[in-house]
Structure formats: C-alpha cells, structure tokens
Amino acid sequence: MDRLPFPDDLIRAQQQWHDTYRALTAPRPRRTTELRRRLLALSARIHGHPFWSTPAGRTPAARVELRQRTAADRTQVAA
Question: What is the dihedral of CA 11, 16, 19, 25, to 10 degrees?
Fold first, then answer.
C-alpha cells in the first residue's frame, strides 16, 4: 500500500497529540488541566484539517494510517 501524502503540519499535530496523551497517562501527571486542554485543542486541529476534505483524506483508512504512522515514529524515537 502506498503511503498517503500527509501535510507536515498535520503530522506534527498528530505527533504532539501522542506526546500529550502519553504525558497524561504517566503515573501522577502534573498540570493535568493544561495537558487536557492541549489534547482537546490538538484534537480539534487534527479533526478540522483541510486534508480530510481532499480525495486522499476522505477515507477512514487515512485517519488510521496517520495515527499508526505517527505512533510508530514516536516509538522508534523513544527506543
């Protein structure tokens, strides 16, 4: 399967979403209100991105690929 051409800003937003989510799931996280607000803002930015109205972004598989690709990238960076 070919990789979809996600815009850089969408990839960065999804990576930041993963990082923020991981920070919230840490034992006894600090600044939980700030992290939750950031997670909501990033979710809105990702959901409302113009890429999703393009032919490549109209399928549910595109959203799954974005999440999988950015989660895999963060796992490799952490390892």
Answer: -120
Rounded distance between C-alpha atoms, residue 39 and residue 20, angstroms: 6
Q: What is this structure's pTM?
A: 0.83
Which tens digit of pLDDT belongs to each residue from 13-72? 999 999 999 999 999 988 999 999 999 999 999 999 999 999 999 999 999 999 999 987
Contact 51/10 with Cβ under 8 angstroms? yes
Task: Say if residues 53 and 17 touch (Cβ distance below 8 Å).
Answer: no
Report residue 61 CA to chain centroid gap.
14
Q: Are the CB atoms for 51 and 6 separated by under 8 Å?
A: yes
